[in-house]
Amino acid sequence: MDVHESVLQLIGGTPLVRLRTPAGGSAAVYAKVEFASAGGSSKDRIGLRMIEKAERDGLLSPGGTVVEATSGNTGIAVAMVAARKGYRAVVVVSDRISREKLAMLRAFGAEVVVCPGGLPREHPDHPVNAAARIAEETPGAWLAAQYDNPANPEAHYLTTGPEIWRQTGGRVTHLVSCVGTGGTISGAGRYLKEVSGGTVEVVGADPASSVYSGGDGRPYFIEAAGHFRHPETVDDPWPSSYHQDVVDRVLPVTDRDALLSIRRLAREEGLLAGGSSGTALAAALRVGAAAGPGAVVVVVLPDSGRHYLSKYFDDAWMLRMGFLDGDEDGTRLADTV
Ligand code: PMP
């Protein structure tokens, strides 16, 4: 029989899809389509690895509870893996996450705690602090702590990086990825640098006001990418899952460019990707144009546009937020104007 024993075997192993780029001057650009993973994002890889490492380390036992603070996808991954393995999952989110992600968390049986968005890092109700408190107060609970968990970058070092190397036959020249926790770029980037003898260039893509690309930390719309800093936050160290030594440069991308990129991607390539995919894609097209023919650019698309149908693919939302004032991307539906 050609079967899988469980959904856990459907994590990762995602395809690379060639994107059409301007004829002539550009590099080949391939999208690493992470929404093809069972839980719908790159975070499935770390959800599985963090939980299995906790099991091996004796931190999580049958009947236990997995707790995590997340902008959504790590929670979805943790909830999916916990469902299959029989753990309880408590997921702490801010009220800024999309309706679709919230519904998915609940569909997988997670208990969801919603905190107000935009709080300073020190505030007790900041999702990271709330999750730590819940983990402490719940017997048998284990906090996944993706921002500080070495199993996060490790998952991408052991899976995403090797997949990209194998799928391109070792011809990849550039990796472009968003930086949220930094796990993807740090793990996959480190692997590709090592295996290529340092020739692969690793490029971060960042929402324009995020601190990773030198912004002032003002809020932006793209979920799960970059780093927002509340003006009252005093001590806000960058996550230890982000290894800056692996990253050659970080390109800022405006929300508008990111969102118009994914709307075009859906219409022109038939690939429905999320907002941070647009951030990465806009940066990758810049990298590809500058690198020229002969270069092979791989861009990680972390999740699906299905998570954001009520926002980025909703013309009324886009108009309300000022991202579609003319019909600049040609995707606005006539009947919504
Ligand atoms: N985009 C989306 C949609 C994500 O869920 C994440 C993970 N939080 C990222 C980008 C960033 O990936 P990483 O945390 O590995 O840096």
From TrEMBL:
It comes from Streptomyces stramineus. The chain holds residues 1 to 337 of 482 of the full protein. It comes from the Bacteria. Keywords: Pyridoxal phosphate. Residues 8-303 form the Tryptophan synthase beta chain-like PALP domain. Its cofactor is pyridoxal 5'-phosphate. This is Cystathionine beta-synthase.
